[in-house]
Amino acid sequence: MTSMLDINGKTVAVKAAPETPLLWVLRDELGLTGTKFGCGMAQCGACTVHVNGDPVRACVTPIAALSGAKIATIESLGGAHPLQQAWVKHDVPQCGYCQSGQIMSAAALLAQTKAPSDEDIDNAMSGNICRCGTYQRIRAAIKDAAGLTAATAVAAPAAQGPGKSVAANDIDDDIAAASGSTSRGVGQ
Length: 188
Ligand code: FES
Ligand code: FES
Fold this sequence. Notes:
The chain is of the alpha+beta class. The protein folds into two domains: about 5-75, Ubiquitin-like (UB roll), CATH 3.10.20.30; about 80-180, Orthogonal Bundle (DNA polymerase, domain 1). About 35% of the residues lie in helices and about 10% in strands. It contains six helices and five strands. The chain has helices at about 20-30, 80-90, 100-110, 120-125, 135-145, 165-180; strands at about 5, 10-15, 50, 55, 70. A hairpin with a 2-residue loop joins strand 1 and strand 2. Helix 2 (about 80-90) crosses helix 5 and helix 3 crosses helix 4. The longest helix is centred in the middle third of the chain and has 14 residues, at about 100-110. It is globular and about 50 Å long. The site of one FE2/S2 (inorganic) cluster (FES) has 11 residues, from loops.
């Protein structure tokens, strides 16, 4: 069966079964490998794309749910998006694996909130996990891209567990608390 999807402004025909998660179609059928597989369970945010402008976990979103929807992946940002420039300026990535999902969540935030507060950023980004603990640089880059003062850009991580920031520990706690509960796929 062929499904028609609107991806990055183009209508494409895909052969995958309707129940196939979008992430597999993007990476394996269409070669759009900027979107990453992390957990496969809507728990890490590595696979975040936009569906009609909202951040959505592609690993749990079947293509059957996307008929008529406008899908955008990290490739749609083109490499020179203000967030991508800010990411480079603030040297955000460490291993880099989570970062396309981080940027897509941030892009959805800035599209809806031009001058986000720290609370807005925390709320928008709380579902995107970074095992390298780049959260402070992510926040600084988002503020910079929004034209706000990136005062937290050079703040040193607080002393705590090896390799983890406060935010990382908080998010780990959130995952544990949310385990088995909400998913952020379309319609959920
Ligand atoms: S791969 Fe982790 S949320 Fe989709
Ligand atoms: S940069 Fe390594 S997981 Fe985020």
